[in-house]
Amino acid sequence: MVFHYASPSRQTLPVEDATPDHQVHTPSPASEQTIETSDTAANDPWRCTERSSRSDAAGREVTLQRAGGLLKADVALTTHQGETVVRKDYRLWQRTALAPLARYLMKREARMLQRLSGWAHTPEFKGTDGRYAFYMSRIDGMDLGEARRRSVPVRYSEIQRMVGELHRFHVTHNDLRWTNILVTPEGRLVLIDFASAFHAAPRSPLRPIMNRLRRADMAGTLKFKQKLTGRGLTPTEQRLKTAPRWLSMVRRGWKHQMLPRLKRH
Ligand SMILES: Nc1ncnc2c1ncn2[C@@H]1O[C@H](COP(=O)(O)OP(=O)(O)O)[C@@H](O)[C@H]1O
Ligand SMILES: [Mg+2]
């Protein structure tokens, strides 16, 4: 299904320690644009050929993703204060043992979007809907995986630049993947899904963790390099991509110990 939407213009976010030539893209107001996604759970609504006008979309909700997996949210296109927006909703988990965690994830992501408000590479936060859901601006375009499949030109250096800029706001994303980067028709890249993101102020005692996470984010972008440019990794990049032992252990512990336990509840 294809929806039309005019994206709002954005303001520039002041960057504390940005380089002098730092630039923030201000998207040109678009007239009629579309979005498509390759997220398996989110594909169906977008894949049908029926075209839907903006007023159709304004009148009803369209599911982008159903809360399938553990602590996944329902994501839907909806109307809020007369605007077409996206709602990310963890309500499925209320009255379960995971309710506090669901509320925490929602608050965390909402806070992160507020923190990054004005940056051209995130959706704009549009308010909360109770304790389990929040609204954000809807991004036109397609996700990075879809862009690659359709040979839409995306420069890897732009991804690196965007992630570097995010780090200068003292935020790491921690979940950089093909479905969490959207590409607008003008070629603007937009990061979504900040549920795992992390912030540490410059003089915070958490800075060492932050530095590790920055490195992991940069390493996370390398999987895009190979696929988008066709070029192999340099030895330095290869080293960066190899996760440190402690991180591999944490990941293994999460996957094989914590996750199965949580799923039993
Ligand atoms: N602001 C947005 N604009 C357009 N599509 C979005 C937006 N936020 C999420 N989506 C779509 O919904 C999907 C799921 O959202 P996401 O926040 O990544 O959820 P999850 O945490 O479950 O991965 C995304 O892959 C994307 O296709
Ligand atoms: Mg996601």
From TrEMBL:
Name of a matching Pfam family: Kdo
A GO MF label: protein kinase activity
Annotated SUPFAM superfamilies: Protein kinase-like (PK-like)
Annotated PROSITE patterns: PROTEIN_KINASE_TYR (PS00109)
Residue ranges with Basic and acidic residues bias: 47-58
Biased composition (Polar residues): 25-41
Keyword Transcription attributed: no
Entries under InterPro entries matching the protein: Kinase-like_dom_sf, Tyr_kinase_AS
UniProt keywords, alphabetically: Kinase, Transferase
Signal peptide range: none
Region (Disordered): 1-58
Protein name stated in the entry: Lipopolysaccharide kinase (Kdo/WaaP) family protein
